[in-house]
Write a structure and sequence with these properties.
With 459 residues, this protein is mainly β. Among the domains are: 3-49, no CATH class; 58-136 and 297-458, no CATH class. The chain has six helices and 33 strands. The protein has helices at residues 3-12, 18-31, 35-49, 73-78, 81-86, 230-233, and strands at residues 88-93, 97-102, 108-112, 118-122, 129-135, 139-144, 150-154, 157-161, 169-173, 187-189, 195-198, 204-205, 208-209, 215-218, 226-228, 239-246, 251-257, 263-266, 285-286, 299-302, 307-310, 319-323, 329-333, 343-350, 355-361, 370-376, 384-390, 394-398, 400-402, 410-415, 424-432, 446-447, 457-458. The strands form eight sheets. Strands 2, 3, 4, 5, 29, 32 and 33 form a seven-stranded mixed sheet that branches. A four-stranded antiparallel sheet has the order 1-31-30-28. Strand 16 (239-246) and strand 17 (251-257) form a beta hairpin. The radius of gyration is 22 Å and the shape is globular. The two termini are 29 Å apart. The relative contact order is 0.14.
């Protein structure tokens, strides 16, 4: 239950019941602890409309022509001026990845839209996949640590494999059966191999959210876990968005949602259940004191020179935030028509010439609130609009990630049908135009190996 989604269309209509709808909206905001966030929305909206945000406070887009998704998604992608100028192209692949994670040896591990209870892997760059393991229920997220151990979340339970997916054991139960960690943002590893998981989920109980804002960490490779309710004690009321180690900052970044939407940094990499004080520099330091200063970021990535964060203000004003040191933050406003769309995910790829930061925003509130796939080649100082889309009809997602900065990037374009079963998904792989794609017969895109030919089923 998201009050922005529930009341946005009602409040936009010129309806005699506008006063009643507004009152119902305010009551709902009060019940879920959103009044402070609503006040921030009003402040940002006023500053935008009367011009109090200076021109240099907005995200700077290049002059590249941005195609909009229509009926022919292949044509829209091929007509992207940025991709053509940079010598890139998105080639369709036969594997309908929902998520895929690049292992240290280059193997892609993940799950597919068509069989999201099966863990599969590809050793040929998404031309074919092999089934490694079959779970009884859908895979909600996955992660691979520096040692190559696989961690898969299924119905609120974390399973670990240390033998390349041949077998899994249960290592952690989250606080609810619908809980998971956000792909690419909700699980991370420190240089000393300590692992962290931030619990995410949305459960409405009577008149409030069930609190799932628990942080878990493991010092033995993920075999045993310690839970801390630090964020719950600090007033978080819903879940964790991001927990990620930032090499640039040599620190752990943590963000929470829903009512507080704060950001925390732990530079000591110790005392994970404590807040810093004037007398103690160990533990979590609160980055911003007030809600309107932004926080609760939904996405984070880093380059050699900076850390970039994306905000989560559905229906409000969204920001891309840039920091060099974790102390000073440059906050750039997403301009219209993208302003109301949260930054859902960000990732960094490494090409021969430089690092590229890819990000996508998404909102399905209305046809006028556009969503965007964008790319930056200068550490987030300027951005190229790659593909624009209407979130009521399509979604473009970043579906691949890796611990190391590689050149691998996959996006999934979903065209909505009348029901989830009729949605169409097509996955594309970023390639340089000088690389000639391998033509594959669709009938040969599913393979099995001797080691994984027997399907394993786990409860």
């Amino acid at each position: 239950m998201d009050i922005s989604s529930r009341y946005f269309s009602q409040l936009k209509r010129k309806d005699p019941a506008i006063i009643l709808n507004l009152w119902a909206f305010l009551v709902a905001a009060y019940r879920v602890g959103k009044l402070v966030e609503l006040l921030s929305f009003v402040v940002w909206e006023c500053r935008h409309r009367v011009g109090l945000f200076s021109r240099d406070r907005y995200v700077k887009f290049t002059d590249d022509t941005c195609p909009s998704l229509g009926v022919d998604t292949d044509l829209a992608i091929q007509s992207s001026e940025f991709l053509n100028r940079e010598g890139f192209c998105f080639e369709p692949v036969p594997i309908d990845w929902k998520y895929c994670f690049e292992a240290p040896d280059g193997t892609l591990w993940g799950t597919r839209y068509s069989d999201n209870n099966k863990l599969v892997y590809s050793i040929d760059g998404s031309i074919s996949v092999t089934i490694a393991y079959e779970f009884l229920h859908s895979i909600s997220s996955l992660y691979i640590n520096s040692q190559g151990y696989l961690f898969v979340c299924v119905e609120g339970t974390i399973y670990k494999s240390s033998d390349c997916g041949l077998s899994f054991k249960k290592v952690l139960s989250l606080s609810s059966s619908i809980s998971y960690f956000l792909f690419n943002n909700g699980m991370t590893e420190l240089p000393d191999r300590t692992l962290f998981i931030g619990e995410y989920g949305s459960i409405w109980r009577r008149n409030n959210w069930q609190n799932l804002a628990f942080l878990y960490y493991s010092t033995d490779g993920g075999d045993t876990w310690t839970m801390t309710d630090f964020l719950v004690r600090e007033g978080a009321n819903k879940h964790i968005h991001v927990v990620k180690y930032c090499e640039r900052l040599a620190a752990l970044l943590l963000t929470d949602g829903d009512n507080k939407k704060r950001a925390w940094i732990n530079s000591s990499l110790t005392h994970f259940d404590e807040r810093t004080t004037r007398r103690q520099s160990f533990g979590w330091r609160l980055v911003t004191k007030f809600h309107h200063q932004t926080g609760g970021y939904l996405a984070v990535t880093e380059t050699k020179n900076c850390v970039l964060l994306g905000s989560d203000y559905l229906g409000g004003t969204n920001f891309i935030v840039r920091t060099l040191d974790g102390r000073r933050f440059e906050k750039s406003v997403m301009p219209d028509p993208y302003r109301r769309s949260p930054i859902m995910n960000m990732t960094t790829t490494q090409s021969r010439a430089c690092q590229e930061v890819w990000a996508f925003s998404y909102s399905c509130l209305s046809t006028t609130s556009k969503s965007l796939l964008m790319c930056s080649k200068d550490d987030g100082k300027t951005w190229a609009r790659v593909i624009e889309f209407d979130g009521t009809k399509n979604e473009v997602r970043l579906v691949s990630t890796s611990q190391r900065k590689s050149g691998i990037l996959h996006i999934a374009i979903t065209t909505y049908g009348d029901c989830p079963e009729s949605h169409r998904h097509q996955v594309y792989k970023l390639m340089h135009k000088s690389a000639r794609p391998v033509q594959v017969n669709e009938a040969s895109t599913f393979t099995t190996t001797a080691n994984h030919s027997e399907l394993s089923v786990i409860q």
